[in-house]
Design a protein that fits this description.
alpha/beta, Rossmann fold, 6-stranded mixed β-sheet, 5-stranded antiparallel β-sheet, 10 helices, globular, glutamine amidotransferase, Cobyrinic acid a,c-diamide synthase, CbiA/CobB_synth, GATase_3
């Protein structure tokens, strides 16, 4: 998002119907969709939600980025495998990544020539583009020590290595569906959204849905010890990294008192943990949180929880929802009324998750969209 200087919309071929995806992909600027994981990797059992799945829905050509650090002629077998795996997915170009030398590049290009797939560029190995990572992916752009320098260096390297004219020539307008899926209705009329490095994982399409439905959104920074606007009907605490800032959050009195006095509060993942009684960080130190839910979580002993979720709310939300769960926190205690009955991508029951305590509710699930008939069968 920082590199594009715009809003980046999440397009999820598992959780969203094709009309919803096509509607979100509309725009008057060139569209580049960054794939997640491998091209055909998605939810079991058939890979629904994969980048290939999304390419089929939007009829987009695919530019395949190949890590060639330890390959020579074998690169042709890899590329051919991707190109022939699904005739409905068109591999329109290749970018070779982590090339070792000019001689290495020559070997790779010669091996790929018989496939007649355009090689759009070759990026050589460099430490310039290395970025630190943590358990939920890369360190956020706002935390980068010199983001502008990094982006400028990346732009120069890519501009020198990739045929940008050929890349742009692959772009084409997307076609909007005749019938758009209704958006996710806002849970309140006046919503205050926490937004900073501790609570950064709010989906832009959901915030846009709420605005389009007439809701008023305001934003505040818990890390800057800001309180939500006092007339908010709902405070939304998105996911993020509260465990990295737990001591600071626990001492920010304006934030704590403002949220505790809010008419209603909803939290997802990191926001859910912040709503609990206490949060134990990776060093084993316990930090007092908002105390709105009878919940205690810990990062001292980490355990991965990952996967798509079908969510049937017991309250707070209206209608079934689609979401996902991705966190390493361990729940030490969660007592009270559950928020959702949850199933995984294969429709197997996961039991109840989350908590409701009066006007306070949350869970580890990130809501992506409302459930529709089409959103359960988008692989073809």
């Amino acid at each position: 998002m920082a590199a594009s200087d715009g809003t980046c919309i999440n397009l999820d071929a598992w959780a969203m119907s094709p009309p919803r995806i096509q509607s979100l992909a509309q725009g008057n600027v060139p569209l580049i969709v960054e794939g997640a994981m491998g091209l055909f990797d998605g939810a079991p059992p058939i890979g629904q939600g994969s980048t290939a799945n999304l390419a089929r829905i939007l009829n987009l050509p695919v530019v395949l980025v190949l890590d060639v650090a330890s390959q020579a002629q074998s690169v042709a077998a890899v590329a051919a495998g991707f190109a022939n795996h699904d005739p409905a997915v068109k591999i329109a170009g290749l970018i070779l990544n982590k090339v070792g030398s000019p001689r290495h590049e020559t070997m790779l290009r010669r091996a790929l020539e018989p496939l007649e797939i355009p090689v759009l560029g070759a990026l050589y190995r460099t430490k310039t583009l290395n970025m630190p990572s943590r358990h939920l992916g890369l360190v956020q752009a706002a935390e980068h020590a010199d983001l502008d320098l990094f982006l400028n260096q990346a732009a120069r390297l890519v501009s020198d290595a990739v045929d940008l004219d050929a890349l742009m020539a692959l772009m084409q307008p997307t076609k909007c569906a005749d019938v758009a899926q209704p958006p996710l209705a806002p849970p309140a009329q006046n919503i205050a959204v926490a937004s900073d490095a501790a609570f950064a994982f709010a989906y832009p399409h959901i915030l846009r849905d709420w605005r389009d439905a007439g809701a008023t959104l305001s934003f505040f920074s818990p890390l800057a010890d800001q309180a939500p606007v006092p007339d908010a009907d709902l405070v939304f605490l998105p996911g993020g990294y509260p465990e990295l800032h737990a001591a600071r959050l626990a001492s920010n009195s304006a934030f704590l008192s403002g949220v505790r006095n809010a008419a209603s509060v909803y939290g997802e993942c990191g926001g859910y943990m912040a709503m609990g009684q206490g949060l134990i960080d990776a060093d084993g130190t316990r930090h007092q949180m908002l105390g709105l839910l009878d919940l205690e979580t810990s990062f001292e002993t980490r355990k991965l929880h990952l996967g798509y979720r079908r969510l049937s709310p017991y309250g707070f939300w209206q209608g079934d929802l689609m979401g996902h769960e991705f966190h390493y926190a361990t729940t030490l205690r969660a007592r009270g009324q559950p928020l959702f009955a949850a199933k995984d991508a294969e429709n197997s029951s996961l039991g109840d998750i989350g908590l409701i305590n009066g006007h306070y509710a949350g869970s580890f699930a990130h809501i992506i969209d409302r459930q529709s008939h089409d959103s359960t069968d988008t692989n073809r």
